[in-house]
Amino acid sequence: MLTQRQGEHLPAWLGAVRQDDLPSLHTLAAGIDRDLNAVTAGLTLPWSSGEVEGHVNWIKMLKRQMFGRAGFALLRKRVLLAH
Questions:
Q1: What sign has the CA pseudo-torsion 24, 16, 4, 30?
Q2: Over 90: is that where the pLDDT of 77 sits?
Q3: Average pLDDT, whole number, for the chain?
Q4: Which of 17, 19, 51, 71 is the most buried (most CB within 10 A)?
Q5: Does residue 66 contact residue 30 with C-beta atoms inside 8 Å?
Q6: Cα angle vertex 66, ends 57, 54, to 5°?
Q7: Which pLDDT band holds residue 82 (cuts at 50, 70, 90)?
Q8: Higher-confidence position of 83 and 20
Q9: C-alpha dihedral over 11, 17, 18, 23, to 10 degrees?
Q10: What is the pLDDT of residue 81?
Q11: What is the pTM of this model?
């Protein structure tokens, strides 16, 4: 479903999860149900926010590295000069 972009199979998968005796997956299914349209679109449509998420992850890594060492001004400078 993930690699083949087959979001139309999601309702059947959720039904199978609900029938299994796996409470943690029941919690996951309930969370997916809360925003089923968005999850289905994410599994179906060709667009991705992967590149943006990569930049966000990189900035958070820089922020963690600098925690307690310097203020916002130095963090800003590192972000701007790195790219």
A1: negative
A2: no
A3: 89
A4: 17
A5: no
A6: 10
A7: confident
A8: 20
A9: -140
A10: 87
A11: 0.57
Contacts 24+ apart (CB under 8 A), 40-45: 40/7, 40/8, 40/10, 41/7, 42/7, 43/1, 43/2, 43/5, 43/6, 43/7, 43/10, 44/5, 44/6, 44/7, 44/8, 45/5
Contacts 24+ apart (CB under 8 A), 35-40: 36/10, 36/11, 39/7, 39/10, 40/7, 40/8, 40/10
| Cβ 75 vs Cβ 62: under 8 Å | yes
8: CB partners within 8 A, 6+ apart: 40, 44
Tell me which residue of 48, 16, 19, 14 sits closest to 31, measured CA to CA: 14
